[in-house]
Amino acid sequence: MAATELFTERGYEVPLEEIAARAGLGRGTLYRNFRDRADLAVAVLEKRLDEIAAFVDEHRDDPGAFFPFLKDLAFVAFVHTPLLEGLEADQSGKGPASALRSRAEQIFAIPLDLAQRARLVREDLTAGDLLLAANMLASGHGPRVDDRGAVIDAAMKLLTEGLRPRE
């Protein structure tokens, strides 16, 4: 999706005309489908949440999917946290951003509960903690895109020891 690519490359303030051009659309077509930048950002983030929800649903009975889920979540956070922050800073995006965070926590609660029941992670973790952990893993915004996977792998190794149950 052109909007996802440009929001990732250029940030929340990328001109909507550039998004329309990359998508091969006229500006009018873009504005008929999205009333403003916040509306388009919400659509991008909702699509990503739909993908995460599908992964969670597909692995609903596999507690071992928790750590791959967390790693994928870190990649999502790496790419989309700046977009969410831009949305939150936009007056018309504050309400939708809050709703997106709530939906994300509901989705994250499912693999977390499964991993907790399997005693793979601490019982006191919350879905909000997962969001924080994903943002911590993704906080290495400095590395080149090529190094992103290695940075997240190293951070994941450090973080997972803190998530495991205490003996």
What is the strand and helix layout of this fold?
Blueprint: H1 2-10, H2 16-23, H3 27-33, H4 37-58, H5 66-89, H6 94-117, H7 127-138, H8 148-163
Written overview of the protein:
This protein is mainly α and 167 residues long. The protein is built from 8 helices and no strands. Helix 4 runs parallel beside helix 6 and helix 6 crosses helix 7 (127-138).
Describe, in short, the structure shown.
The chain has 8 helices and no strands. It is mostly helical and 167 residues long.
Largest sheet: none
Total helical elements: 8
Mean pLDDT: 84
Number of strands: 0
Structural class given helices, strands, pairing?
mainly alpha
Outline type = elongated
Strand content: under 5%
- Poorly predicted parts: none
Distance between the termini: 46 Å
Helix content: over 70%
Summarize the helix and strand pattern as letters: HHHHHHHH
- Rg value: 17 Å
Quick tags:
167 residues; mainly alpha; 8 helices; 73% helix; elongated
